[in-house]
Amino acid sequence: MALSFAVVASSSSIMCKAINANNHSHLQDLSYIKRAALISDKSAGFTSPHPNFGCVIVTPSVEVVGEGYLYAQGTKPAEVLAVEAAGERCRGATAYVNMEPGDCHGDDTAVSALVQAGITRAVIGMRHPLQHLRGNAIRALRSQGLQVDVLGEDMQSKLVEEARKACLLVNLPFVHRAASRVPFSVLKYAMTLDGKIAASSGHAAWISSKLSRNRVFELRGRSDAIIVGGNTVRRDNPRLTARHGGGHMPIRIVLSQSLDLPEEANLWDLSDVSTVVVTQRGARRSFQRYLASKGVEVFAFVAPKIIGGKNAPSPVGELGMVEMSQALDLIDVCFEQIGPDMLISGFLQPIPDLTPTIPSEDETFAIDPTVAPFETSIIFFYKTWDLYGAFSNFSPHPIQMPDEDGNYVTWFSVEHYYQANKFIGVSNPLAQDCIDKIKSAKSPEEAARMGRLTQRRQPHLVRSDWESVKIDVMYRALKCKFSIYPHLNSMLLSTAGSVLVEASPHDLFWGGGRDGEGLNYLGRLLMKLRSEFLGESSAASENTCIAL
């Protein structure tokens, strides 16, 4: 009996230790996933249209040896940066990522980095929201022998749900867009304690404190666009800039049905960022020409002030509700004091499911027959995470091109090379300085921003023959890109017989435009290049047959 009792006691002790160890490991996993989500948010606003990605690498001895996050569109994946930081200490380690990697360029860069570095386990916060990418990286990692745990699937508990929520919130706009196919919108306003957003005279500067306004600038810097109505333009003459010392600047959009807008306004100054005016057809055509020549999470700032006045405007107008049961409820409401103000934030609708069901084109057509699926003979591409996103001149594929002296120079992307060529050959030190800055830009978007901004502000630095050579510059860069990357060459050749359309709604030269009114020169160049490659392949086949 004594011996039996001793054995049972020993087994219980071992079992308790095992359970405690598992719980401890479980908590560590959740802690590092939250860390990955936290660091992924460092570049919010810059990564668009990609999600915010973060990666943390931890050794079996529970030591963080590498971290990385996606800096911007077209830059190295977070997993690659984390592996580079960890070096040889990746062997046998665990990689924590807030979202399943998305292969946007046909080369499995993130997955390959983890596998080749010797990572043996990956913990993933959530699956990729885009249907054509969801599950691909998880299957690829498992096929290479890695243990892959997905929060909410392989791991479940209340604490797991909190960690999943952290992963969701850091990419909520992206998830919402994938699930609903409409942008995630934020309604922001500042009001007094008695519910007014301006005095009866319309004066509103300033209701909120400087600290609150700084938070607004931070919010703008995380957004793709800022939308205001005509009244705001007429009364406030806003700039709608992020004012955070450079970096990402969201597009400014003005909605005005009558186009009754002033000729002089800060928004018509396009030196820092572009402005889009949306109006109805036929409204003030002369003013439209003038403008052309110029080249909902809810955030409510409540200030401890009372202004009164029956006619003073309130933040929300008539919604047609007559009963309290019709009121719009906020969920996940948060309160935060910012200086003398109170920031109240919440969501108008339930948070989208972590793995939303995105309808296929056929399913969409069945639901709404007016939404016809794209014809199979037309391939659209635009964002680098599209199925054919690697066709974009913004994809992160370095190329080597000869300089003026015939020496080969490496450019981080086609866009880097294209933008720098605007200023090549100009005998002005400022032009060379601009070329150097574009070459060292961390992302294609930064290179594009630098080139466009300099072209607008200092047109004398642009080479005189630019308009006549820019198509050839782009073609040479594209040819280099699709010649040195076999998987890209194969992808391009696989589209034989299809029309390629760069689907940018704004760029009417390189893109197809919103309604097909664009010139689609990028698509044309890719089809020309495809034809050239197919011709070379055909000739090579004929030569092979003759030799045989």
Uncertain segments? 1-20, 351-359, 367-376, 541-548
* Mean model confidence by pLDDT: 77
Major sheet characteristics: 5 strands, mixed
CATH superfamily of the largest domain: YbiA-like
**Total beta-strand segments:** 16
Taking all Cα atoms into account, the compactness measure Rg is 27 Å
Strand order of the largest sheet: 2-1-3-4-5
Q: CATH top level of the largest domain?
A: Mainly Alpha
CATH architecture of the largest domain: Orthogonal Bundle
Name the overall outline: globular
N- to C-terminal distance: 87 Å
The CATH topology of the largest domain is given as Tetracycline Repressor, domain 2
User: How many distinct domains?
Assistant: 3
Portion in beta strands: 5-15%
Helix content: 25-40%
Classification by helices and strands: alpha/beta
Q: How many helix segments?
A: 16
Describe this structure in words.
The chain is built from 16 helices and 16 strands. It has three domains: 158 residues, Cytidine Deaminase, domain 2 (3-Layer(aba) Sandwich); 95 residues, Dihydrofolate Reductase, subunit A (3-Layer(aba) Sandwich), CATH 3.40.430; 181 residues, Tetracycline Repressor, domain 2, CATH 1.10.357. Helix content is 38%, strand content 15%. Strands 2-1-3-4-5 form a five-stranded mixed beta sheet, sandwiched between helices. The chain has a four-stranded mixed beta sheet with strand order 6-10-12-11. A hairpin with a 5-residue loop joins strand 1 and strand 2. With 548 residues, it is of the alpha/beta class. The N terminus and C terminus are likely disordered. Helix 2 runs parallel beside helix 3.
